[in-house]
Every structure is written in structure tokens, then in C-alpha cells.
Design a protein that fits this description.
124 residues, mainly beta, seven-stranded mixed beta sheet, 0% helix
């Protein structure tokens, strides 16, 4: 059973950076598409970024394009989300999720494995 564990959340001022990591069992990311979602209080869960194996194609929500980068670290067996130029509206609980095969940010219900979430707070 694949398990995902997020780390790297925290508090930062607007304009700052944070890096989130999603750790899984070795070999997971060769077949499982991984994405980061976020959910702010009172709002629906939003797809943020997607990493699709085996070629490593990526996809981003319009709200984070140019500021966030998703990447895979084969040595650490993680999928990381580098978040730069953070804004207060980026404040949310961030979740790592995996879907076997092809995945799409627009369809969170297709992701079968979810991490426990990590809080990101951006102050103005």
C-alpha cells in the first residue's frame, strides 16, 4: 500500500519561499502520478501542480504559474513543491496525492492516495 508523507510547511511573510516534500515508498513515482492540492478554510480543494511519470511532464494551476515548481528527487524518493513569491492567498493546507497512471488536476476524485496535509501560512 502506497503511503505519502508531506513535510516542509510553515509560516512565512509575503514574498518568501517554502519547499514542500512528499515522501513515498521507493519506486512509487515510476508509475504513480503525483500532485499537490491545497484547501483554504471555507474553500474547495484546488489542484496546484502535477508531476506525471515517466517523462516528468508538469502542469500548474494558473494562480501559481511562474511561482511554484514541482519536481521529483530520485535520490530522496520525493516529489517536491518549491513555492516562491508567496502571497497571503496561498495560505492553505497543502496535500500530496497520488494516482496510478495518468492524472489530472481537475479531477481530485481520481487520486486514490492522500497524505495527511501540511499547513502553509503566508502573512502580509
Amino acid at each position: 500500500q502506497v503511503q505519502l508523507v508531506e513535510s516542509g510547511g510553515g509560516s512565512v511573510q509575503a514574498g518568501g519561499s517554502l519547499r514542500l516534500s512528499c515522501a513515498a515508498s521507493p519506486g512509487t513515482y515510476y508509475q504513480w502520478c503525483v500532485a499537490w492540492f491545497r484547501q483554504a478554510p471555507g474553500k474547495e480543494r484546488e489542484g496546484v501542480a502535477r508531476f506525471q511519470p515517466p517523462g516528468g511532464s508538469t502542469d500548474y494551476a494558473d494562480s501559481v504559474k511562474g511561482r511554484f515548481t514541482i519536481s521529483q528527487d530520485n535520490d530522496k524518493n520525493t516529489v517536491d513543491l518549491q513555492m516562491n513569491s508567496l502571497k497571503p492567498e496561498d495560505t492553505a493546507v497543502y496535500y500530496c496525492a497520488a494516482s496510478f497512471g495518468i492524472c489530472h488536476l481537475q479531477y481530485p476524485a481520481t487520486f486514490t492516495i492522500w497524505g495527511q496535509g501540511t499547513q502553509v501560512t503566508v502573512s502580509s
